Amino acid sequence: MKASVLSFHTRFTFISRLVLLCFLTFFTKYATNPAHAQSVPGTGHLLIYSIDVEGGQATLLVAPSSESLLVDTGWPGNNNRDAERIQEAMSEAGIRRIDHLLITHYHTDHVGGVPNLVARVEVGEFLDHGPNREDTPATRAGYDAYVKAIAGHARRIVHPGDTIPLGGVGVVVLVADGEHISTVSGIKPEPNLYCAKERAWPTDPTENARSAGILVTYGKFKFLDLGDLTGQKEVAMVCPRNPIGAVDLYLVTHHGMDLSNSRAIVDAIHPRVAIMNNGAHKAGMPAAWQTVHDSPGLEDLWQLHTAENSDAAHNSPEALIANPNGDGDGHYLKVVASADGSFSVTNTRTGMTKAYPRK
Fold this sequence. Notes:
26% of the residues lie in helices and 24% in strands. The chain is an alpha/beta fold and 359 residues long. The longest helix is centred in the N-terminal third of the chain and has 30 residues, at 2-31. It is globular and about 45 Å long. The termini are far apart.
């Protein structure tokens, strides 16, 4: 009897120590590294990765349910560089497939990476604004390559007001194919006082003006991505009334080009934080940078690259830049958002995380 009790005590002690060891291992690996801990699927955070595709766009969103949305795919070629960088972000987020892939428009820096990506990654469905509207050789070629690459996959054409299911995260299409919404469910359009001083923007016949743009809502947190939408279409959407309201995070439209980022929209949405997905030698233009920098209530403007064609006065501090020294490094910016409206941004080059508490 005593031997049996002793054996039970020994086994209980061993199991208790094993459980304690597992807990300490988890704590050491994750709790001491908040950026890593928050990437574990099912932790109750929305993850947003602004991936460096050298002046194009690839933005990965992963819901707390682990359902994913990728917005654009970067450039073609480059030895699969952009597809590999997307996969790196996927791996960090703990996912192996893309559930929804939205192509904002058919310029090469947004759609060009599709053939490389679909050869490596499973995609649930492709979303886009419909046929190409720009009659230029490069854009026609980009669209044709896209259609060929997604043959046999599910494809859905989106229109303003459509939604994209994302596991408890609201995603509504604001603009697509040159049209826009006038109201968003749950948001009361307000008169836009910034419209009166807005300049007249030229008509844009390119695919930029056809960009599909989305508003992402997770609890009290809001994120805006309008692709490469240009000035005239921006103003039309928010004037005379702004149907979007204020946002927490703004992906600076058109990589920070001065063909976009009208004050009527940037000032009206009052972003707390902005991310500019510029390249070292593409976009990040001084006028657009200044408009975003000066928008009411902005706390920080993060950049994927130093805009080397600009000057120091129109670049953010180096701590807020993922790739400060030219092309090729591939560091990305990671956002971790909570339903209470709080969020953080991590610069993967330095490991620095800056928290933005709920308001």
